[in-house]
Every structure is written in C-alpha cells, then in structure tokens.
Design goal:
single chain, alpha+beta, four-stranded antiparallel sheet, four-stranded mixed sheet, 17% helix
Amino acid sequence: MKFYKIFLIFILTNPSLIANEAVIRQADQMPTVKVKAGEFFFGSDEPMHYDFEKPIMTVKMKEFYMDKYEVSNQQYNLCIQNKKCKDTKKTKDLTLPVQKVTWKNAQNYCEFVGGSLPSEAQWEYAAKGDLSLSFPWGNSLVDQKSKTLITDNIKTPGSVSGLIPTTKASALNTDSPFGVSHLAGNISEWTLDDAILTESMQLKPREYTKKELKKRRASDYLFLGQSKYKVVKGSSFQTAFPLFQRSSFKTFYPKENSSLELGFRCVSKSK
C-alpha cells in the first residue's frame, strides 16, 4: 500500500509519464494524441465552484483522438483555400492559434480534416484524464519544485499577456495526462455542446436523464438542444483569475459570433 501511494504521487506530479506519442494527421499536419477509453468525474462538486459545474457525474468515454495543439492560422488557411471555411479577416501570424472564428467555421474546419469539434465531455476528459485531475497538470496551482504559480499563458496579475504559438510550451509543463497542450490557457475553445441558459442568461447545471441521475453515471455525454449559444472550455490569454484554469470550468458564447479570445481544436474517432 505504501509503494502504491508513493507511485500515485509520483504519477500525479509527472503527468507526462502517461502521455502517448502523437500521430500526424495528413490533411493539415496536426499532431493528434490518443485519448484512451475510460471513466472520469465530469464536472465538480466543490462547494466554492459554480452551480453550472454540477452535478458531478461518472462518465464513461469511448476512445478518440484529439489535436495536441489549437488549430493555427497556417492550418486554417488550408480550409479557406479549399473554400470550406470563411476568412477571419484577422492579421495573421501563421504560428498563432486562429482567432475570430465562428462555431460553424470551426466545425467546418474539423469536418474538412475528417473530424469534429469535441464534446464538452471529450474536452474535459482529455484535460482531466482518468485520475480526474483538477487541472491538466495535476491538482495544485503551485509548482512544488519552484514554488511558483502554474499558468498556461493567462493574464496573471502584473503581467502583460498575449497569444503564443500553438506549439510553444509554457514555462512549466502544463500538458494533460494524455499529452494535450494549452487546454488551460492561451485561447479558449469551442465545443459541440449547446449551452443551457436561464432567462437571465446565466449558465444552468447540465441536464441528465432520470436514469443517469439515479445511477450518477452517463456515457459519452453530449447535450444538443436548440440553443444559439455553445459551451466554451479553457481559459485564454485574457483570463486574469488562475482558478479559472480548472478543467471543470466553462463559459458560453453565441455560435454566430467570434472573439479574439476564442479558437478551437478537433477530435476524431479512434483509428
């Protein structure tokens, strides 16, 4: 038992040890990583977290592949050239994540390369792993070696933040247990799920069937309704509060609109 505890602590503080080799997608040369089938705790039951992160639910996930990085301007240009996506009209550094892209154009791109946008559950599972970590890198915001705050390119107090290239690593390793980069920061990301809102335009808790609520279990959760708003996951270079880097946190955005803080990545079925 003592050995198991030591081993678990070692793995939690070194999530890259259980990461896997990337597979290059031929359509756009994006490295993709395998997110193996498993179960995780979807959402949060922490008292200080928002109600829309609740209820916590055990969700069983099928295996899938996720883009290791956010889609870059260079990659998005391929979709424009093939007339499958609309130009964002944004001055482009080709190495940076694409910005000012609507939900529809993000989904068009993912279909263009043979996939789709991730569901909220897929995104959160890729970030948490089957250990259900609070953040992609572990359960703490403080690096134990350097005693410094762990951030994934967000606007921390006193800093001037800006986008960094999709493949540029953060100062400290912030990759998820599956090896996915920048899930907690750099740019926020579209998902497939519709946002459930109150009349006052606040996010509501997720909806489940009676059977799912009774058993506290679900499989490959996806919510599609008639909403004009989509769930957005991950913090951005404009996020000032480090705790918003947690994987259960989310926001929403009108799917017909775009933002400088909003980009995307894709998923595909297991090969």
